[in-house]
Amino acid sequence: MDWKRLVELALLGSSGLEQYAILLVRVSIGLFFAISGANKLFSAGGTKPVYDTLVKAKVPFPRLTAYFVAAVEFVCGSLVAVGFLSSPASVALLIDMVVAILTDTLSTLPKGLSPLRWLDDSLYLPEVLYVLFFIWLICSGPGKFSVDYWLAAKLLQ
């Protein structure tokens, strides 16, 4: 490997591996949400923690909303995992996570933190990381190893 290539790799990364990174993130986060949603939908008492959180946050129709959230996680997580309608599914899951952050997660942070410490603690939350992944997937697209990529190639011929 020559010096120029090494500097390029260190400073710019390897775009040749980008499709594999997209695949890894898309399948991992998709499976995570699909499994989480399935556990809520298909396990006895699975929606109870979601329901309790929604009641505490004074969200209207908490029982219906708990099932709706679980269904969104299951269906959209499955779609993201296989890369079918992945951008709309990522938008739905992004909204799901923003609502979770605003209604529940931020309340777990200690009160009276300095702005810098609050930002540090906020960015440490997994839901914030999920939001960032969904933004990345929406902007990058589902990658070459997806149903969307195959479908777009067929429809745009």
List keywords for this structure.
157 residues, mainly alpha, 8 helices, 0% strand, flat
- Work out the number of β strands: 0
Number of helices: 8
Oligomer: single chain
Quote the beta fraction.
under 5%
Cα end-to-end separation: 39 Å
Q: Mean of residue pLDDT?
A: 93
Give an overview of the whole structure.
This protein has 157 residues and is mainly alpha-helical. It has helices at 3-12, 18-42, 48-56, 62-82, 86-103, 115-123, 126-140, 147-155. The model has no long low-confidence stretch (mean pLDDT 93).
What's the gist of this structure?
By secondary structure, the chain is mostly helical. 74% of the residues lie in helices and 0% in strands.
